[in-house]
User: What shape does this take?
Amino acid sequence: MTAGDAERLVALHELLDAHPGAMVATLAPTGLVTDHPAGLDLRGHSHMPAHNPMEIFVPEDHVAVITVFQRVLIDGVSSVPVRLVAQNEGDGVVTAELHNVDLLASYGVVVAVLVPTDVSGGDGRYQPLLPARGSRPRIARLIKNGAGGVISADDNSVAMFGYPREELLSMPPLMLVHPDDQQSAIGTWMEMLQYPDLARRGQLRYRCADGTWLWLEVTNTNRLDDPDYACVFSDIVDISAEMSAQEELTRRERLLHQIAESLPLGLMQVDLQGTVCYTNERLLELLGQPAGVLLAQHLTCVRPQHRRRLLALADEVTTLSVEGDMEVELVAGPVAAGSSGQRLLHVGLRALAQGGEGTDGIIITFSDVTDAVRMRQALEQRASFDVLTDCLNRAELMRRLESALTRATLGTAVVFVDMDGLKGVNDTLGHRAGDEVLRQLAERLLVERRAKQMVGRLGGDEFLVVLPAVPDAQTAEAIGERIARQVHGVLSLSDGALVQLQCSVGVSWVAAGTAVSTTLVAEADAAMYASKKAGRGEAVSFRALPSPRVAASPTPAA
Assistant: This one.
């Protein structure tokens, strides 16, 4: 024995004699618990059954335990205060002093001495790594021969698997191993035999006496050529909880994938570098690009100006962790190629939040809203336009007139157009011909529209033309005369019939901010009746009437 070991052995014995309740462990240079060397007197103290001493310490103290073990290899002795893991629910916190003594030169081990210093709650006792009643230990050791047969089983192995020790020692090598894992176990074992003194690790399932299966991490260390051991050490860690968590995670990932594939939306995940790392099948149907390319490449089938806005919005969502939505038009891709007319997609962007601040990327959804947009446009058309003539209907025209008067900086004119003789057309040629005459009249009014000019059908054979930004009454009268000429002439109907078209036209003008819509329309109506009375189809201005009297009343009915 070296002088240093002799001196440290004396100190070890003094420590053990001073603390008869201390627990001891003999550690290999790797830090794992190893067998008690013959000839080393540990004063009969209890030997910790764990093979991984880290299991008995709270996770927050693991770094300190590793550091103090490294220090004993340099200084010969080391100590550190530690906290021990509670073994049963309701047990209090146990604090202890961990002392390490280096006896590697003489005995090949480091002796660790655990001296409890304080116990809060419980019954004042602590047994490191002994399983709580009704539970299994997580760590055990089997000693095997070269053929894999068990020649020694520690107490934890008996408690972990539930078999009597004699039964464990008599079992064939693969009897405990799950059938699906036996090939892997054989491969790991044969590899371990080829490399003495090196450990080989594998994950597999062992069957317990009660019929349940435990997921284990088994580390086999080949010491067959070592005359002091001539065996294989199988250090076992129960990883069933970890594997169960992994299986649950896998199940959730599978469920999430199934949900993503069943969505009617195109779905993509984009990382912080702009790479698309996931897409579902629906997205491929919409855009035709697989995962693994940049976001900009996915959007080549989007109208260029929409693509630029969408990429800018994606940057904003990623940087600011906000939400974004927009509509884009497809100009290429599977959906656009297989359809007529424009295809519109609604795009929703949401940030993928990290645990703290910032994002891990964004989730983008694409939904084909073409039909919904067309339906919306159709509803808007029905709500705002006359079905027969495609002119604005009365309600929408009056709303826009009121808005134009509110915003006007110049004068506003209205031209009231009433078709003469519609009843005669209906009586002689039928209402279908009458409707065709109204459509052709509307076309003449619509085809000659000026900028911002609005044409509406008030009902029956009455139309109203609204002209914003008319500087004076004379200009308004000139426009009225031009419209009167437009709506005069012979119409040729689809059945070959000819109809002489003539309309009575009334014009009214008002300076900016000096009238309301109902008054302005009533004045044009009065002028129109004057035109009808004259019977020449010429435009009449309200201001030209000899004694204009118009009440500020609702617009005339159709």
User: Anything to note?
Assistant: The radius of gyration is 47 Å. The chain has four domains: 3-119, 139-244, 265-373, 385-544. The chain is about 35% helix and 30% strand. Residues 3-119 form a domain with the Beta-Lactamase fold (CATH 3.30.450).
